[in-house]
Write a structure and sequence with these properties.
Helix content: 25-40%
Order of helices and strands: EEEEEHEEEHHHEEHHHHHH
CATH architecture of the largest domain: Orthogonal Bundle
Strand content: 15-25%
Radius of gyration: 19 Å
CATH topology of the largest domain: Phosphatidylinositol 3-kinase Catalytic Subunit, Chain A, Domain 5
Shape: globular
Distance between the termini: 39 Å
Structural class: alpha+beta
Largest sheet: 7 strands, mixed
CATH class of the largest domain: Mainly Alpha
């Protein structure tokens, strides 16, 4: 859901989470519990000089819209226009909010940790995935990550949930370091960005090449992608007012370039599978 009216979130306390892509800046994260439900909040990049900048949160919503169109189970994010307080100063911004995806009694761990604990002697990551019948999940991750050029699917950006010895993989989440995130507010850089960029990326599963990972995906899944509508009304669903908001802090080139990037990457799949 998108909340276009300004919501007062100045009561939240924010902590810094270092940007794991290797670029400068940090993400501000917060959480609160309301009526027994835990909510997690995340803003785009932040530093003490520029304040809140970038568009990782918008990328997250676009990735969510794309995952929905592709029938990929994903974490649902609200997109909120809000006032927040950082170091005593109020900022107007857009941010994401998500519910805790754990069910009652479940515990979570990073997939990387789950693999290290449960792998057999000498067993590689993909062999472990096949033995545990997780292939379909990772085919979906490879497909989504290729289309959005996700650079940050490290071992903690995939989680395993456990309850009484039963395990399941968490819905796909944390897709913000994708698309044009490294251009920040530079419209000219967005227009010049390599929309078919392949790597290197920070993947725990597979290789540092998004195209090489995509080659693992079964042909029937690739055939389905060709039938999906990737128009702006699908990719930017719910973001109409964000385009017109100065608080989104993105240049006008972002929308055209992001849409073209996803569609061009979808079209490029034909070459990858030649």
């Amino acid at each position: 859901m998108v909340y276009n009216d300004i919501t007062d979130l100045t009561h939240l306390s924010w902590t810094l989470s270092r940007n794991s892509s290797g670029t400068a800046g940090s993400f501000l994260k917060s959480y609160e519990e309301c009526d027994g439900i835990k909510y997690y909040y995340k803003m785009s990049n932040f530093d003490t000089i520029r304040g809140i900048y970038g568009h990782e949160c918008i990328n997250e919503i676009i990735a969510q819209n794309l995952a929905a169109a592709l029938n990929i189970p994903h974490l649902e994010y609200d997109f909120i226009h809000a006032d927040v307080k950082i170091d005593g100063k109020i900022h107007e911004t857009w941010l994401t909010r998500s519910r805790d995806f754990k069910n009652a009694g479940e515990h979570k761990m990073a997939f990387e940790t789950y693999y290290e604990i449960n792998r057999q002697s000498g067993e590689g990551v993909w062999s472990f995935i096949v033995r545990n019948r997780f292939e379909q999940y990772f085919y979906q991750v490879f497909l989504l990550d290729y289309l959005i050029c996700n650079r940050d699917r490290h071992g903690a950006n995939i989680e395993v949930l456990e309850k009484k010895g039963a395990y399941r993989l968490a819905p796909v989440f944390d897709n913000g370091l994708s698309l044009l995130f490294s251009c920040y507010g530079d419209g000219e850089a967005m227009e010049k960005f390599d929309r078919l960029k392949d790597g290197p990326v920070n993947n725990f599963v597979g290789s540092m090449s998004l195209a090489e990972n995509l080659k693992r995906v079964p042909e029937e899944m690739i055939d389905f992608v060709r039938t999906v509508d990737f128009g702006d009304d699908v990719l930017f669903q719910g973001l109409e007012n964000v385009k017109r908001s100065s608080a989104s802090a993105v240049p006008h080139q972002y929308w055209d370039c992001a849409g073209k990037m996803i569609r061009e990457r979808r079209d490029n799949i034909e070459k990858i599978f030649d």
